[in-house]
Request: fold
Amino acid sequence: MRSMSPKPLRGIRDYPPEEYERLEGIRALFSDLARTYGFKLMEPAPMEALETLEAKSGPAIREEIYHFKDKGGRNVGLRFDLTVGLTRYASSDRGAPLPIKLGAFGGVWRYDEPQHARYRWFYQWDIETYGCRNPEADAEMVEFTSHLLRKAGVHEHIVKVGDRRVVQEYIEKKLNYEGERAVELMRALDKVDKKDRDELRSEYASKGFEEGTLERLLEFGSIEGPTQKALKKLEEEGLDSTAQLAELCDQLAQGKAKYEVSMKVVRGIDYYTSTVYEALDLRNPELGALAGGGRYDLLPRIFSRPDLPATGVAGGVERLMMSLGGAASAVMKMDRPVYVACAGGMTNQALSIAAELRSRDVVTFTDIQRRNLGKQLEDAVRCNARKVVIVAPEEFGRGKLIVRDMDSHTEELIEKEKLSSLL
Reply:
């Protein structure tokens, strides 16, 4: 038999047990919080018709995703985000009462060049609201994002909030560019934190833009910070669309989100229609956005639902885990187990006690290697057990068990019947 490499494919990674526990902790936190905000959880299909995936980003998306012909000759692809499937699902039920609020947590696939904080298979969390045009729906997305990061342990974060309408109005009124040329300038703002100024000047000079135009745009993009200060600068520009951003900020001020206004945030140029937002870890800005989203009223129209305005936000779970690092967090803590050990051939009795504890939802480990008591106690230390229940022949014969506290290094004898209540 030919020897095989144990390594996974490039850009794909395994989740070792410790990391997977952290992933499950984030999943549980997200699920609980989504329900708290009234979102119904589901999972969209992992594979879609290629034309469905192209509905969001156009045919060019083929270069960035996994797609192929299935055995029936159909063009299909693996989902590259959760939004497309959620939108397709929400659009399919015309009788559903509005708004439709959906949430999902699952793996997605993208054929990106692997690099730091970027994989070809990774997990996302996602919430979407359909059928509400009011800024309350957008404010809820920002509030949820900040709440999730706070509960996960990323306390030093900020959600940067922008509005594509404000940026577009500035470019059209102040810089006198429209159509595709205006879109090209929006892309410059999206690149501000990824390229230095000289690179941008050279790139946009080669595209025929005057240096003064780019400098004015970059100066506009530097408007960011506390709400009132940023909004005052925008109002001085005399832009009509600023009022809508101000209304959103008024609503955010009623909540607990950590946010600020930023004109650099424009996100997917051909996809988002107005409000956009990105969440950053202020301690680890090199990770990029931990979450991002905005209003995308156009996508449901592709599924024949012009009556279904949409807004949403999604976050990368791997980046969140990187942000947290090894820091202690309520979401990451597992219950420390109880370890049931045995001596003198009391294996079956130990198994019976372990089964009883597990039936009462006590996290319980036990030995399956038939090791001596000393080795079992070493294993209990390795497992970070909080207590060890020792089943010994003499004590068990008198109806008692030895319970060792692994933190205080003390022992006590207890009646077998009192074990469950003690633990």
